[in-house]
Amino acid sequence: MTATIIDGKEFAARVRGQVAEHVTRLKADNDITPGLAVVLVGEDPASQVYVRSKGKMTVEVGMNSIEHKLDVDTPEADLLALIDKLNTDPDVHGILVQLPLPKHLDEDLVINSIAPEKDVDGFHISNVGLLGTGQKSMVPCTPLGCLMMLRDHHGSLSGMDAVVIGRSNIVGKPMAQLLLGDSCTVTIAHSRTKDLPDVVRRADIVVAAVGRPEMVPGDWIKEGATVIDVGINRIDAPDKGEGKTRLVGDVHFESCAARAGAITPVPGGVGPMTIACLLANTVTACSRANGLPEPEGLTA
Ligand SMILES: Nc1nc(=O)c2c([nH]1)NC[C@@H]1CN(c3ccc(C(=O)N[C@@H](CCC(=O)O)C(=O)O)cc3)C=[N+]21
């Protein structure tokens, strides 16, 4: 079988189009412009790439983008004071604190100081608990984007065997919750999983989110399975010339595409959907904050 390529770039453009429509309505009917505040502490290179394209797209869909760039050695109290200010600012509907934070800052403390209803990353313990109990919450952007692509491709996911490789709070665990919510039989695999190849071979849906370049080979993939590659790894590409690099996922694309029914590429798969879902979460948060109907199809 040769897999259908799930075009995350195109899908994300569609999602941003829906967000833009909703923003237009909020402005015209309610005189409200959704605002997203992004806080970047220090200069992590991965975060900088992300902040750039995110800021551009926030403005493109008609929302206000508020950026706070703080010094790498900003004291924790200053960061918490800024978050407090954003929490009570009525023009700010979404707050995202770029991770990872410099080591002197307590990531859990910082995340949990964001007002849960403005936590567009969905990392606050309240949102984690709400998601885990099937209540309305802010859903982490990357898993939400993966879910949207899976639903679009399959219609119903009910009864499917899903294997999530990776148990992070940012992707693996919330992804598993979402798949369970859609009635998949879910396995979370990780570095200590016994017989990982055999576990993955059972899966109708494989979500790879470990951050290890091309670690899933094609012969782990059940014929016809759907493969969602969350990894974005930059590796050396001497074949492209001295000092050149390229982006690869957590799955070995060619060999997995030869067996899968559908697969997401890297780049152009999950990454663009993550940003689109951040914008979707911001417009959702803004609608909720104003007691207005939520955008349809943009929430879990
Ligand atoms: N609080 C927080 N939330 C995040 O969601 C978050 C974060 N911190 N810190 C940094 C990482 C990184 N991240 C990316 C999102 C999209 C692409 C993306 O769209 N990548 C393109 C390729 C970009 C390229 O060419 O380098 C793609 O996959 O097609 C990349 C990286 C979100 N992050």
UniProtKB/TrEMBL annotation:
<keyword id="KW-0521">NADP</keyword>
<dbReference type="InterPro" id="IPR020631">
    <property type="entry name" value="THF_DH/CycHdrlase_NAD-bd_dom"/>
</dbReference>
<keyword id="KW-0378">Hydrolase</keyword>
<keyword id="KW-0028">Amino-acid biosynthesis</keyword>
<keyword id="KW-0658">Purine biosynthesis</keyword>
<keyword id="KW-0560">Oxidoreductase</keyword>
<dbReference type="InterPro" id="IPR020630">
    <property type="entry name" value="THF_DH/CycHdrlase_cat_dom"/>
</dbReference>
<dbReference type="GO" id="GO:0006164">
    <property type="term" value="P:purine nucleotide biosynthetic process"/>
</dbReference>
<dbReference type="InterPro" id="IPR020867">
    <property type="entry name" value="THF_DH/CycHdrlase_CS"/>
</dbReference>
<comment type="subunit">
    <text>Homodimer.</text>
</comment>
<dbReference type="InterPro" id="IPR046346">
    <property type="entry name" value="Aminoacid_DH-like_N_sf"/>
</dbReference>
<feature type="domain" description="Tetrahydrofolate dehydrogenase/cyclohydrolase catalytic">
    <location>
        <begin position="6"/>
        <end position="121"/>
    </location>
</feature>
<feature type="binding site">
    <location>
        <begin position="166"/>
        <end position="168"/>
    </location>
    <ligand>
        <name>NADP(+)</name>
    </ligand>
</feature>
<keyword id="KW-0511">Multifunctional enzyme</keyword>
<dbReference type="GO" id="GO:0035999">
    <property type="term" value="P:tetrahydrofolate interconversion"/>
</dbReference>
<dbReference type="Pfam" id="PF02882">
    <property type="entry name" value="THF_DHG_CYH_C"/>
</dbReference>
<keyword id="KW-0368">Histidine biosynthesis</keyword>
<protein>
    <recommendedName>
        <fullName>Bifunctional protein FolD</fullName>
        <ecNumber>1.5.1.5</ecNumber>
        <ecNumber>3.5.4.9</ecNumber>
    </recommendedName>
</protein>
<feature type="binding site">
    <location>
        <position position="232"/>
    </location>
    <ligand>
        <name>NADP(+)</name>
    </ligand>
</feature>
<dbReference type="GO" id="GO:0000105">
    <property type="term" value="P:L-histidine biosynthetic process"/>
</dbReference>
<comment type="similarity">
    <text>Belongs to the tetrahydrofolate dehydrogenase/cyclohydrolase family.</text>
</comment>
<dbReference type="GO" id="GO:0004488">
    <property type="term" value="F:methylenetetrahydrofolate dehydrogenase (NADP+) activity"/>
</dbReference>
<dbReference type="GO" id="GO:0005829">
    <property type="term" value="C:cytosol"/>
</dbReference>
<keyword id="KW-0554">One-carbon metabolism</keyword>
<dbReference type="GO" id="GO:0004477">
    <property type="term" value="F:methenyltetrahydrofolate cyclohydrolase activity"/>
</dbReference>
<comment type="function">
    <text>Catalyzes the oxidation of 5,10-methylenetetrahydrofolate to 5,10-methenyltetrahydrofolate and then the hydrolysis of 5,10-methenyltetrahydrofolate to 10-formyltetrahydrofolate.</text>
</comment>
<keyword id="KW-0486">Methionine biosynthesis</keyword>
<dbReference type="InterPro" id="IPR036291">
    <property type="entry name" value="NAD(P)-bd_dom_sf"/>
</dbReference>
<feature type="domain" description="Tetrahydrofolate dehydrogenase/cyclohydrolase NAD(P)-binding">
    <location>
        <begin position="140"/>
        <end position="288"/>
    </location>
</feature>
<dbReference type="InterPro" id="IPR000672">
    <property type="entry name" value="THF_DH/CycHdrlase"/>
</dbReference>
<comment type="pathway">
    <text>One-carbon metabolism; tetrahydrofolate interconversion.</text>
</comment>
<dbReference type="Pfam" id="PF00763">
    <property type="entry name" value="THF_DHG_CYH"/>
</dbReference>
<dbReference type="GO" id="GO:0009086">
    <property type="term" value="P:methionine biosynthetic process"/>
</dbReference>
